[in-house]
């Protein structure tokens, strides 16, 4: 491994800052819900039985068991099942985490450093202890060889020092960042003795050594992977793990597309599905198994920010560099007709990059948000101050005469004219052509009406559906005109915003800056957001960022719902308490042998 000077660790004894106290958990803003003596989370069954198998279906393919690099298509579940983080997030608190691999954490008053103490007894699946050397190796490896998004996420870790075999001190560089200790706690630790003789930057199908609740036991690339519960998992009885990871086996089968996957579920070949298609939810499950309660159809409400699903313009392409052009093209999308005729009225139009949360901008800016935006008044669109953002509204009839007329006027304003029934740039002579890159045939019916409306504007438009590997590669290399993508959000935005919108990531392959945004105002708002000293300031800065992004017209917003659409065969138990943020809720379910026996007898 190449030398990484900033992360060279020395085993020394350093004095702790006076007043720093070990804590059993961290909260970005506010108090911890669970005390140091808590035994389990409230939303689990601490006595859930272990056993049985959970069979899941995935769409697409995989060719790698290394989820930490850009290269390859990693199998689903690797990070969640195999690797222990330092801290474990919760499903009933926003931006809070408790010790998992780490027993405690100490944080400097100025957030310039944090000390994590590893639990005694933590070990890898081969029995070797997890030590400070593993943690230091992990940071150095991720920051030099890891996925670009991870490099960006952990960029503020300046150096790491081992205080002893189980205590590690992280020093943070740059401006104040209150989130960095919390971000550090999300690190999935890698075994130094396993990886130091292997090429971390290459894909592999060798089951990796890890420390978590499961290990890989069987696989066939692109077809299936099986995870088996580790019987002597070192962290089984930790308070953050009690009542979780209950299945003896988790098998993930891969299917060509959603239609085949749904049929596999209905045939009993898989056990659970989270349905993302309104059409399938409305029409694909009218079968006896659902009618008779064997296949349970349930909507699970949640309070997660739903983020932004949208048609994303690639502004690296000259035709989308003009904000007015992007604004014009949004008038060709008829959400109201689409929702009524394709989605069975299930969705709400998304009007924010932080939808379904208190972080979303609404109305006109006021108070602290207005003060923040005033500092950029001459560098951002005037509409930020004068007009509440609303995506183009239609009457739902499918007739977009007024909307298309508005679009034409805006395109003319941007220098595009109609020549021989084609939209052409008046100066360059470039003809407007748009390709929608899709990774599933199910999106074709949604893109088709938009494409038809674009053609009425003289634009040559088409949809191109490619397989999962090709799609991933093209997106990573920004080789597309328009994609349909979702940018999820947390309840406390922070470092990840750099990967989403900052100019420093616009040309970094694999970053999530899908639109290629390069805007000094956006950069500055992100930097300030990361340093926010309070929840109130974080909210004000996020709303300001949201408003600037919205009026940049980088996307044509899609839609969202605030519940999960799920189907499961009735052979599982689940906790009585439903948390507001149901992250990885399947980890709290268990196999119910009695229910399974009844189900088998009814078939």
Q: What integer is the average pLDDT?
A: 93
| First-last Cα distance | 56 Å
Count of individual domains: 2
Our count of helices gives: 19
- Low-pLDDT residue intervals, each spanning 5 or more residues: 1-19
Secondary-structure arrangement, i.e. CATH architecture of the largest domain = Roll
Q: What is the number of beta strands?
A: 25
Main sheet makeup: 5 strands, mixed
Radius of gyration, in Å, reads 25 Å
**Beta strand %:** 15-25%
Estimate percent helicity.
25-40%
* CATH-defined topology of the largest domain: Dipeptide-binding Protein, domain 3
**Highest-level CATH class of the largest domain:** Alpha Beta
Task: Tell me the name of the CATH homologous superfamily of the largest domain.
Answer: Dipeptide-binding Protein, Domain 3
Shape: globular
Tell me the strand order in the biggest sheet. 19-18-20-14-21
| SSE class | alpha+beta
What does this 3D model show about the protein?
The structure is a single chain. A hairpin with a 2-residue loop joins strand 16 (416-419) and strand 17 (422-425). Helix 9 runs antiparallel to helix 13 (401-413). The chain contains 19 helices and 25 strands. The longest helix has 16 residues, at 535-550. The strands form eight sheets. A five-stranded mixed sheet has the order 19-18-20-14-21. A four-stranded mixed sheet has the order 2-11-10-9. It has a four-stranded antiparallel sheet with strand order 5-6-8-7. The chain folds into two domains: 5-46 and 60-195, D-Maltodextrin-Binding Protein, domain 2 (3-Layer(aba) Sandwich); 308-558, Dipeptide-binding Protein, domain 3 (Roll), CATH 3.10.105. With 603 residues, it is of the alpha+beta class. The termini are far apart. Helix content is 26%, strand content 20%.
């Amino acid at each position: 491994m190449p030398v990484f000077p900033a992360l060279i660790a020395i085993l020394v004894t350093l004095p702790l800052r006076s007043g720093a106290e070990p804590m059993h958990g961290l909260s970005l803003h506010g108090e911890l819900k669970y005390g140091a003596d808590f035994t389990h989370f409230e939303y689990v069954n601490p006595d859930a039985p272990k056993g049985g198998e959970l069979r899941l279906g995935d769409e697409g393919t995989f060719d790698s068991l290394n989820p930490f690099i850009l290269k390859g298509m990693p199998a689903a579940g690797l990070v969640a099942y195999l690797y222990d983080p330092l801290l474990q997030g919760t499903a009933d608190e926003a931006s809070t985490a408790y010790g998992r691999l780490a027993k405690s954490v100490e944080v400097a008053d100025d957030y310039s450093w944090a000390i994590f103490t590893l639990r005694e007894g933590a070990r890898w699946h081969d029995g070797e202890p997890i030590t400070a050397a593993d943690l230091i190796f992990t940071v150095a490896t991720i920051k030099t060889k890891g996925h670009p998004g991870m490099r960006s996420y952990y960029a503020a870790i300046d150096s790491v020092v081992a205080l002893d075999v189980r205590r590690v001190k992280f020093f943070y560089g740059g401006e104040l960042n209150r989130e960095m200790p919390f971000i550090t706690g999300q690190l999935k630790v890698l075994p130094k003795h396993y990886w130091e003789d292997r090429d971390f930057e290459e894909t592999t199908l060798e089951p990796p050594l890890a420390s978590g609740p499961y290990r890989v036991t069987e696989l066939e690339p692109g077809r299936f992977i099986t995870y088996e519960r580790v019987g002597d998992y070192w962290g089984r009885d930790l308070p953050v793990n009690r009542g979780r990871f209950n299945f003896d086996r988790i098998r993930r089968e891969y299917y060509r597309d959603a239609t085949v996957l749904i049929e596999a579920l209905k045939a009993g070949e898989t056990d659970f599905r989270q349905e993302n298609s309104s059409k399938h939810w409305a029409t694909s499950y009218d079968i006896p198994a659902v009618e008779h309660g064997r296949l349970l159809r349930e909507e699970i409400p949640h309070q997660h920010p739903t983020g932004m699903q949208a048609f994303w313009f690639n502004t690296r392409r000259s035709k989308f560099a003009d904000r007015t052009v992007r604004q014009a093209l949004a008038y060709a999308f008829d959400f109201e007709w689409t929702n009524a005729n394709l989605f069975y009225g299930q969705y709400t139009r998304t009007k924010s990059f932080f939808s379904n949360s208190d972080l979303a901008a609404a109305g006109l800016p006021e108070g602290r948000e207005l003060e923040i935006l005033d500092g950029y008044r001459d560098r951002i669109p005037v509409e930020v101050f004068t007009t509440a953002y609303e995506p183009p509204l239609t009457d739902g009839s499918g007739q977009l005469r007024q909307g298309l007329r508005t679009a034409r006027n805006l395109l003319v304003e941007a220098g595009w004219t109609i020549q021989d029934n084609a939209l052409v740039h008046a100066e360059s002579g470039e003809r407007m052509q748009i390709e929608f890159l899709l990774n599933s045939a199910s999106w074709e019916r949604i893109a088709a009406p938009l494409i038809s409306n674009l053609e009425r504007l003289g634009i040559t438009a088409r949809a191109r559906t490619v397989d999962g590997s090709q799609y991933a590669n093209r997106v990573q290399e920004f080789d597309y005109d328009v994609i349909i993508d979702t940018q999820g959000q947390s309840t406390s935005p922070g470092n990840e915003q750099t990967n989403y919108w900052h100019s420093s990531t616009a040309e970094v392959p694999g970053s999530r800056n899908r639109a290629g945004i390069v805007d000094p105002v956006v950069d500055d708002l992100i930097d300030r957001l990361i340093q926010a000293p309070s929840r109130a300031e974080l909210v004000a800065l996020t709303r300001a960022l949201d408003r600037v992004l919205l009026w940049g017209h980088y996307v044509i917003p899609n839609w969202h719902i605030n519940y999960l659409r799920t189907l499961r065969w009735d052979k599982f138990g689940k906790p009585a308490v439903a948390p507001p943020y149901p992250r990885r809720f399947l980890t709290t379910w268990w196999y119910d042998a009695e229910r399974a026996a009844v189900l088998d007898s009814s078939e």
